[in-house]
Amino acid sequence: MITIKTKKEIDIMREGGHILAAILKEARDYTKPGIATGDIDRFVGRLCLKYGVKPAFRGYNGFPANICTSLNDEIVHGLPSDKRVIHSGDLVSLDFGVLYRGFNTDAAITFSVGKANATEKKLIKVVQKSFFAGMKKVRAGAHLGDVSEAIQKYIEKEGFAVIRNLAGHGIGKEIHEYPVIPNFGKKGTGDILKEGMVLAIEPMIAEKGFELKLDTDGWTYITADGGLSAHFEHTICVTKRGYEILTQ
Ligand code: MG
């Protein structure tokens, strides 16, 4: 069952989500050529202390960092490292969650450092637009499959692949709550959305094929064919007529 959040709980998640968005923006501005992903992780750790939030991913299933930093062919769950230095031309995804007053929020961005090539620019644009294509379907009474299908259709129309083995999720007191929200599906199927449901919607796309593999670090998922990948995520709340983004 998808939990329904009270107005008070949603107010807390909106506050937490606002802090998350501020940290993510500062982390993005901090990400420059010569900076290691381990530096980004420590920078985010300091911001969490400053803003009085807990990094939600730290310790989750044993994840040992504050933020996920995934570069180029890395899809998600990139493990920050002092050995991993950012270069001009890298495609960077930052995925970050905060725990604030007992509730989690989750968001991710992908951007290029230095000059982006045409494929990188298109990946960034398509992953964002696919999110909003899905959002157009969100309202009380819609099926979850309506959202998944809209995301998939947009991505495939643009010639990219939808990552199949990773998905969005419900969110609240737990970082991952029911349901699993794939970025592919059929309209008219799946759970029916109700006002007060809070979901993390997160299209993950690949330049070539959707097959993935786990890196030797045991955390980072990478595309099996080495193609570039992009990720975009917000925590949203279902309203009567549509949705509200809580992580902005
Ligand atoms: Mg998520």
Condensed summary:
The protein contains four helices and 15 strands. By secondary structure, the chain is of the alpha+beta class.
Any descriptors?
15 strands; 4 helices; single chain; four-stranded antiparallel sheet; 248 residues; alpha+beta; five-stranded antiparallel sheet; binds magnesium ion; Creatine Amidinohydrolase
The count of domains is 1
CATH architectural grouping: Alpha-Beta Complex
Unreliably modeled segments: none
Class based on secondary structure composition and strand pairing: alpha+beta
Helix content: 25-40%
In the CATH hierarchy, what is the superfamily? Creatinase/methionine aminopeptidase superfamily
**CATH topology tier name:** Creatine Amidinohydrolase
CATH class, named Alpha Beta
The topology string of helices and strands comes to: HHEEEEEHHEEEEEEEEEE
Main beta sheet: strand number and arrangement?
5 strands, antiparallel
Our measurement of the CA-to-CA distance between the termini, rounded to an integer number of angstroms, reads 27 Å
Rough outline: globular
